[in-house]
TrEMBL record:
Pfam families membership: GST_N_3 (PF13417)
Gene3D superfamilies referenced in this protein's UniProt entry, alphabetically: Glutaredoxin (3.40.30.10)
Name of the protein in its database record: GST N-terminal domain-containing protein
A single cellular component GO annotation: chloroplast
Domain GST N-terminal, chain residue ranges per copy: 153-235, 274-355
Species of origin: Ficus carica
Entries under CDD domains matching the protein: GST_N_2GST_N
């Protein structure tokens, strides 16, 4: 039996330090369940005594501490750029198709596009993933009790748009109606892939960091289960969300010809001072095209999910006058734009290597 990682599930387990080590968790937060994700009897004695400032080696397993983020990884694990467990077949297929998809993706993403084709292929991608990632799942909590349903500190997701396993996590986040920070990690990444390698020990996506609990984790299935356990208030992922990824999760990747997979060669090397903000939901065909561009430019952004039933819909109406997405807000230039075609033009003009953000 191979070495395993710590989390709340049988094959990937995570251990986080107590809430006393996280000042933000000492504040009342009605959405946060009990800190202990596992009965203490299921944790090894070494885990219970693990110090957040130490590194513990046990046989062929290595405990890794990154500030207050903990995970266990195998000493002989090798870096990879996609999921390593149940998704091996789809991962191999995606790896094989990458150069072909890039060949047929239409070349320079900043160039002239056939917008009819863009909309058709993105709409077919949405159709392939119905009903996942389109609406917020209802819960039993009176939403008027909250000024926000988000955790005190935003979750951080390292991913790339074309990855079917990353898509699974983004669909779950739409269902949970969470906002989070997205750090795109396209192939050829100059910033974010190195961060993932430093925090988790390998390039594998998606990679979630939850600063509210100190948990960092790979594996999309485990991330989805963790998110629903931690922030779902008793809700469960919609039927088929986890199982369907291996069947249709790769369809948007194929239909979109690998858009959102590779760093644009003319992208700026330095990140903007402030994160952009995108109002979106996972299965919206127009928002997908914008997220692809953000990934190809490796631009970190705050993702504000506004699926059907989202409590943020009111905020979106207040800001833009309608519930239409995508809506992009760039605090670096004071720009706010809502049409996906205009957003594409703005992004590639503003964040090319030849442009200077003022």
């Amino acid at each position: 039996m191979p070495p395993v990682c710590l989390s709340c599930y049988t094959h990937t387990l995570f251990y986080s330090s107590s809430s006393s080590n996280h000042p933000s968790l000492s504040q009342p937060f009605s959405r946060r369940p009990k800190t202990c994700l596992l009965p203490t009897t299921l944790l090894p004695s070494s885990a219970k005594k693990f110090s957040p400032f130490s590194e513990l080696v046990s046989r062929n397993e290595i405990w890794v501490s990154r500030r207050s983020r903990f995970c266990v990884k195998s000493a002989d694990s090798e870096p990879d750029t996609a999921e390593s467990n149940s998704g091996n077949a789809s991962t191999s297929l995606l790896s094989f198709l990458c150069p072909l998809l890039k060949l047929f993706s239409g070349g320079d993403p900043s160039g002239e596009r056939n917008y009819t084709l863009e909309e058709v292929t993105s709409s077919l991608s949405s159709l392939a993933r119905l009903p996942w990632g389109s609406k917020s799942l209802p819960n039993s909590v009176d939403r008027e009790e909250f000024t926000t349903l988000d955790p005190p500190m935003r979750l951080q997701l390292y991913e790339f748009e074309a990855c079917p396993f990353c898509r699974r996590v983004r669909e779950a986040i739409t269902e949970l109606d969470l906002s989070l920070e997205v750090y795109p990690c396209p192939k050829g990444s100059v910033r974010h892939r190195e961060i993932v390698r430093r925090l988790g020990g390998k390039e594998q996506f998606p990679f979630l960091v939850d600063p509210n609990t100190g948990v960092s984790m790979y594996e999309s299935g485990d991330i989805v289960k963790y998110l629903f356990q931690q922030y779902g208030q008793g809700r469960k992922p919609s039927v088929g969300l986890l199982e369907s990824t291996l069947l249709t999760g790769w369809m948007p990747t194929i239909l979109r010809a690998g858009r959102g997979m590779t760093l644009w060669e003319k992208a700026r090397l330095d990140a903007p001072p402030k994160k952009l903000e995108l109002f979106s939901f996972e299965n919206n065909p127009y928002a997908r095209i914008v997220r692809e561009a953000l990934c190809e430019l490796e631009l970190p952004y705050i993702l504000q999910n506004v699926g059907e039933g989202s409590f943020r819909s009111k905020f979106l109406v207040d800001i833009a006058g309608s519930k239409e997405v995508p809506l992009l807000i760039d605090p670096n230039t004071g720009t706010r734009v809502g049409d996906y075609k205009k957003i594409l033009s703005y992004l590639f003009q503003t964040y090319s290597a030849n442009s200077v953000v003022t």
